Amino acid sequence: MEKTLLSFGHGYSARALAARLVPQGWTIFGTTRNEAKFAALEDEGITPVLWPDGDLSAAFETASHLLVSAGPDADGDPVLARFRDQIAEMAPRLEWAGYLSTTGVYGDHQGGWVDEATPLTPSTRRGQMRVDAEGDWRSVPGLPLHIFRLAGIYGPGRGPFEKVRQGTARRIVKPGQVFSRIHVEDIAQVLEASIDRPNPSAIYNLCDDDPAPPQDVIGHAAELLGLPMPPEVDFEAAEMSPMARSFYAESKRVSNARIKDELGVKLIYPDYRRGLEALLGAEL
């Protein structure tokens, strides 16, 4: 049976998944706000559709799978706001639906561990919007929904090397602060594993094995490049955007046991050291 994926918000993570599915013969419709991206998406085997006013009729008629990467805004989930009726109509015939959320829904745990059963206590407005969006998607009747809560994403084009090379990197230190992170290729392999083994209503944390202080990641990048160690800056004194500073309001270690136990996933990059080494190796 032909597999067709309708991908809303076909960006960084969705493109990594598509790179695995297209060679298997999948048809993929991907929405983008920028018509200038059409050629690149077409080169990747994607049928691009302009958001929000492009023609999605063929995608709604043929999709066997649904992926939503688009984030919520102040008005709620943008996909459901525009297409709830169409998605509810197609839901019973979908084999799988995935919603990409964030580990920000758990809020601050002062460095403690969280898993998928941890109560949702977001400490930021962004986190609360994600909690609300998860609930909105769960409310669609008959949708075979899987929720993926992503840690901080890195990968090709999204590493710390450029700032280190430019001399603008800083090791911002806030005592006790740790973040979980995930390489984009591991996001893609988890999504593919879930597609191959659907379990509607399942929730999965996507992160690696090594929650770590952010200054350690910057420091390791400098070591790999053979460049001077970026200076340490106290968090309270650091010049940061309000968005960047808000990330430091939460510190937690996120368990990834479920993706291993239920989906049989073996991480390609189980910690940031191996992930950064691979990124740098790919540049050489």
From TrEMBL:
<dbReference type="InterPro" id="IPR036291">
    <property type="entry name" value="NAD(P)-bd_dom_sf"/>
</dbReference>
<protein>
    <submittedName>
        <fullName>Nucleoside-diphosphate-sugar epimerase</fullName>
    </submittedName>
</protein>
<keyword id="KW-0520">NAD</keyword>
